[in-house]
Amino acid sequence: MAGGILVLLNHCWLRSILERILSSRAENAARYAIIRFILRLSLIAVAVVALFRVGVNIAGLLTGLSILVLAMISVSIYSLVHRKGESS
């Protein structure tokens, strides 16, 4: 469960960063993106290390961290297989 929560927070944070970058001026966007990227990954690494030290199940953490990616892949495959109104 900890991995799932961590990945959802990461996804929400990434979305807000991208929205700010796309709405800002071009010369500030690159620097802002790099700083936020490094900060986001650093905080995730610290959280994962803290979870390991607390004794979280590694298999459960990895499953939780990959659940969003697996959900996106599943929806993409489902959408491709069940196209409505389009001929193959």
Would you kindly provide a written description of the structure presented here, covering whatever features stand out?
The chain has 88 residues and is mainly α. It has one domain. Helices cover 85% and strands 0% of the residues. It is built from three helices and no strands. It has helices spanning 2-23, 26-54, 58-81. The longest helix is centred in the middle third of the chain and has 29 residues, at 26-54. It starts with a helix and ends in a 7-residue tail after the last helix.
Give a quick set of tags describing it.
mainly alpha, 0% strand, 88 residues
Question: What is the fold's blueprint, element by element?
Answer:
Elements: H1 2-23, H2 26-54, H3 58-81
Helix pairs in contact: 1-2, 1-3
State the gist of this model:
85% of the residues lie in helices and 0% in strands. It has 88 residues and is mainly α. It has one domain (2-78).
Rg, Cα atoms, Å: 17 Å
Enumerate how many helices there are, as a single number: 3
Low-confidence stretches: none
Oligomer: single chain
Q: Termini distance?
A: 40 Å
Q: What's the story with the biggest beta sheet?
A: none
Helix-strand pattern, N to C?
Answer: HHH
Shape: flat
How much of the sequence is in beta strands?
under 5%
The total tally of domains equals: 1
User: How many β strands by DSSP?
Assistant: 0
Arithmetic mean of pLDDT: 83
Structural class: mainly alpha
In percent, how helical is the residue content? over 70%
